[in-house]
Write a structure and sequence with these properties.
By secondary structure, the chain is of the alpha/beta class. Strands 3-2-1-4-7-9-10 form a 7-stranded mixed β-sheet. A 3-stranded antiparallel β-sheet has the order 5-6-8, with helices on one face. Helix 1 runs parallel beside helix 3, helix 2 packs antiparallel against helix 3 and helix 3 packs parallel to helix 5. The longest helix has 31 residues. The chain is globular, with a radius of gyration of 20 Å. It binds ribulose-1,5-diphosphate (RUB).
């Protein structure tokens, strides 16, 4: 029964499924499928096995809170279920609802964000974010005649996926190496990137190098916009938890043969951009300033969360 969940977790770990929104939807869908195929005995057994499925998915990649939120949304009503059937149905329905909400949120962000793009603008994006690319493709579809610089995004080179996707959508796209960002920034009118996690103080965690884009944008006076569905907001950070930055294998940076003897490799794959460098966080609820994230989180979770100092 756990095989399908393990397969999804492995696809996420190996980045066959990647990007914070996609892994959240895949995680929620895997929970739904697990419930659908469950043929164990009691409600108690189901809760135990569901807990294992949940943890298997959460252990796949540590940084994007979207995965946690997707999995959590799927299981949230199980504690109130009085029968196995009720518990299973709630997981199936909640996982579907999360998937739909997530896809709709990306579409809404595309519409909202595209209004922030002017005719003839040159944009810059980093990595491969469906939310940010949604904005860019929508602006292009509106005939805004935009140009886009896409960073290569070492070491995994997600920028190639971005360049392909934008080119296929008819966008005038130019690929640059990551170290060219500061040099090209004076040709750029606005930056649009995605997010894996947004903390309660408005810090954005996204692909390694994002904070360098933000610094260069700040220096050049270029607006730095983050496209993030609200399930990228991390409730844990309200209570002091820090976001774990994933480190991946050194082989992604240089394979064994290319690496001189005795040389170590450090491969953190996300970084943190402080709120002061962010002009706007574009969500499905509208455009927020980073300083508004805390209030939105409180509203989303309800004031009751403060009773126990926990979420
Ligand atoms: C992907 C990445 C993306 C965010 C947002 O990193 O950093 O910018 O996940 O993506 P990786 P989206 O390739 O390591 O998963 O907007 O699609 O959720």
């Amino acid at each position: 029964m756990l095989d399908a969940v393990r397969e999804t977790a492995s696809d996420i770990r190996e980045m066959k499924i990647r990007g914070a929104g996609r892994i959240a939807r895949a995680g929620a869908a895997a929970m739904g499928k697990f419930a659908e195929n469950y043929c164990g005995g009691s409600l108690e057994d189901f809760k135990k096995d569901l807990g294992t499925a949940r943890q298997t998915l959460l252990d796949s990649r540590p940084t994007a809170v979207s995965l946690w939120n997707g999995v959590q949304a799927s299981v949230r009503d199980v504690q109130n279920a009085t029968s196995l059937e009720e518990a299973r149905d709630s997981v199936i329905l909640n996982s579907r609802a999360f998937g739909e909400m997530s896809s709709n949120a990306v579409e809404t962000i595309a519409k909202i964000g595209s209004r922030m793009v002017r005719k003839g603008d040159t944009l810059l994006t980093h990595c491969n974010s469906s939310a940010a690319l949604g904005v860019i493709k929508e602006a292009c579809a509106q005939g805004k005649d935009i140009k886009v610089y896409a960073t290569e995004t070492r070491p995994w080179r997600q920028g190639l996926l971005t360049a392909k996707e934008l080119s296929e959508a008819g966008v005038d796209v130019t690929l640059i190496v990551d170290s060219a960002v500061r040099f090209v920034m004076n040709k750029v009118d606005a930056v649009f990137v995605g997010a894996d996690t947004v903390t309660s103080n408005g810090t954005v965690i996204n692909k390694i190098g994002t904070s360098q884009l933000a610094l260069a944008a700040d220096e050049a006076g270029v607006p730095f916009n983050v496209c993030a569905e609200s399930y990228k907001f991390s409730p844990m950070t309200m209570f002091g938890e820090t976001v774990m930055i994933e480190e991946r294998d050194h082989g992604e940076v240089a394979d064994g043969a290319a690496l001189p003897k005795g040389v170590k490799v450090y491969n953190p794959v996300f970084d943190k951009t402080p709120a002061k460098y962010i002009d706007a966080i574009i969500t499905e609820m509208g455009v927020l300033s980073p300083g508004a994230v805390y209030e939105v989180m409180v509203r989303q979770m309800g004031e009751g969360i403060f009773k126990n100092g926990d979420f």
